[in-house]
Design a protein that fits this description.
heterodimer, A: alpha+beta, Translation Initiation Factor IF3, 2 helices, B: 3 strands, elongated
Chain lengths: 107, 152
């Protein structure tokens, strides 16, 4: 199986779950560089979307998902179901992205 | 001098912030109409159906901040308590925008509905004097694609 199916519902419509392999997870901690922080500081005056931060978090989330998928592959799963995302800020300017789910084998 | 800077920032925040918010709301309302054909559900399970749809995780995120004027007003409001309208509209905009981006992604892959939609809110950066300057909202769910090529 080349690609892994990721879903945040507990079933996969039309396919049967043969085996549960337990929890898999991935996380990443990212900080912004000073330039982005500075631009965000300016944007804070007028309000609106902080594009730099949106991109940063999107990239981090993809990386965390990648790590989770790697882990799922290494234990022989071909799908991850019931996926949840969680975000926490560790210090000012750094964020932790955490993603976890249940690795399963679909028939 | 300090007061002058403060007043300038307040004025910039008031006018630029208001214009930006109005523009954002117009764009949100327009795109909500465009994407109205993809229903989203917070239900955990899709209803059983005869054809097995393909499924894929979709998500959309946005980071939005309030302007200087609104942050100042919110600061005043904290003294007497009560509803802080300026933050309410910020969160409303952020959530609707995140949902729209998720729907956009669902549309691109040809999905017809999104199930088990979850919204996650977090403040990534604390602003002036630890007040919430910006929020991040992430919306995610499982998109169901019907009429997809059956995997053998």
């Amino acid at each position: 199986m080349d690609s892994i199916l990721i879903s945040n519902i507990e079933i996969v419509p039309g396919r049967r779950i043969v085996k549960h392999l337990g929890l898999v997870q991935g996380s990443t901690v990212r900080a912004k560089h000073v330039g982005r922080d500075f631009m965000a500081g300016l944007k804070n005056i007028v309000g609106g979307e902080l594009k730099g931060y949106t991109e940063l978090l999107q990239e981090s989330r993809e990386e965390a998902t990648q790590r989770m998928v790697q882990q799922a592959k290494s234990i022989g799963a071909n799908a991850v179901i019931n996926v949840r995302f969680s975000t926490s800020s560790i210090t000012q300017g750094a964020a932790e992205l955490y993603v976890y789910g249940t690795a399963v084998v679909l028939e | 001098m300090d007061l002058l800077i403060f007043i300038t920032l307040i004025l910039i925040g008031f006018f630029a912030g208001r214009a930006a918010e109005k523009r954002h709301y117009r764009s949100i309302i327009r795109r909500e109409k465009e994407l109205a054909d993809i229903p989203i559900f917070s239900a955990r399970f899709p209803p059983p159906r005869t054809d097995a749809p393909d499924s894929k995780l979709v998500g959309g995120s946005v980071v939005v901040s309030v302007d200087y004027f609104k942050r100042f007003v919110a600061g005043l409001r904290m003294i007497i308590g009560g509803r802080i309208h300026s933050y309410e509209s910020l969160l409303d905009r952020a959530r609707r925008e995140a949902i729209l981006r998720m729907k956009q992604q669902a549309k691109e892959i040809g999905a017809d509905s999104v199930f088990n939609v979850r919204l996650e809110t977090s403040s990534i950066s604390k602003g002036y004097r630890n007040s919430i300057g910006s929020v991040e909202v992430y919306a995610y769910g499982t998109a169901l694609i019907s009429g997809a090529v059956k995997r053998v």
